[in-house]
Design goal:
Layout: H1 2-14, H2 22-29, H3 33-44, H4 48-66, H5 71-77, H6 83-94, H7 98-104, E1 128-133, E2 136-146, H8 154-161, H9 165-172, E3 183-187, E4 198-207, E5 218-222, E6 225-235, H10 238-254, E7 257-259, E8 264-270, E9 278-289
Antiparallel strand pairs: 1-6, 2-4, 2-5, 3-4, 3-8, 6-9, 7-9, 8-9
Helix pairs in contact: 1-2, 2-3, 3-10, 4-6, 4-7, 5-6
Length: 292
């Protein structure tokens, strides 16, 4: 998988002055567009689109300082429709406009080329299981929240605290299948998985045939499919965020599965209610065979 991903990275480098289609990158990497975006984000720490933008502006910065071409020619060469759009993008990365950079020879930022390597440590052992589930429903309370990669997500914390406790206890009685009890469900994530993009967050239960729902609750229908289930224990939310990272940087490159569109399910059992308390977590990710 990583070899094919690196071939896609080479394709990016050869076509930075052209339109780069994610569909073509996914074909080179022998995977789906959805999985490619998620895999890249986990491995690189930034969305694929952001990496391409930064690589283009790195090369554009070198050409600006070289002074051989006009600023408009450079802008057009790297796909910007106007000098103003190029100047805004240039300043957002380099902290200085292209005209000023050329006049003063300002120091610019550089996005290095990326290549991926898998390092396997003998002590590393990730436990997982594969589960085929029939169609089910998520029944729960829903909010639109921003994606946070590291540290507490205050929007989720505030949302959960605002849920009426008796309503949540009544909701828990509707749980009739794995993962049992109250679970956190993330759906509708932006394909880029960029920090701050929004998603639908549910605090609810997994059930086969929901009866009358508590007031204010909503339902998400989920079709039948395959799920990879991972477990972790440690201080929350760090252990949970690291589990998600390790799944994409270690497990997916080493196993014949790729992610597919669908909600992500997280069951958490806390040992206490203080910040940083230990938690036992079970992460359910929708997957499909890499070649199937």
């Amino acid at each position: 998988m990583l070899e094919r991903l690196n071939q896609a990275m080479e394709h990016i480098e050869r076509h930075l002055d052209q339109t780069i289609e994610v569909e073509e990158l996914a074909r080179i990497a022998a995977t789906s567009e959805y999985h490619l975006r998620r895999m890249f984000s986990a491995l690189a720490g930034m969305p694929l689109s952001e990496y391409v933008r930064r690589r283009r502006l790195t090369l554009a910065g070198a050409e600006v300082l070289a002074g051989r071409d006009t600023l408009l020619d450079i802008a057009v060469h790297y796909g910007y429709g106007s000098g103003e759009a190029f100047a805004r993008a240039f300043r957002s990365m380099h902290g200085v406009g292209p005209g000023e950079a050329r006049r003063t020879g300002a120091a610019l930022n550089s996005q290095s080329r990326m290549a991926f390597r898998l390092t396997i440590e003998g002590s590393s052992n990730m436990r997982y299981r594969i589960v085929d589930k029939a169609e089910f429903s998520v029944v729960g309370f829903k909010a639109r929240v921003p994606l946070v990669h590291a540290g507490p997500n205050q929007a989720i914390i505030d949302f959960v605290r605002g849920i009426d406790r008796p309503a949540l206890e009544g909701l828990e009685k509707l749980s009739d299948q794995e993962p049992h009890g109250i679970v956190a469900v993330c759906d509708g994530l932006d394909p880029s998985r960029a920090e701050g993009t929004e998603l639908d967050y549910y605090q609810g239960v997994i059930t086969s045939a929901p009866p009358a729902m508590p007031e204010g609750a909503t339902t998400l229908a989920v079709p039948a499919g395959t799920w990879a289930v991972f477990c972790a224990s440690g201080p929350a939310p760090q252990a949970i965020q690291e589990l998600w990272r390790d799944v994409f940087t270690e497990w997916f490159p080493s196993n014949p599965y790729r992610s597919r569109t669908g909600p992500e399910l997280l069951r958490i059992r806390m040992s206490g209610d203080k910040p940083g308390a230990d938690a036992d977590a079970e992460l359910w990710l929708p997957v499909e065979p890499e070649h199937g």
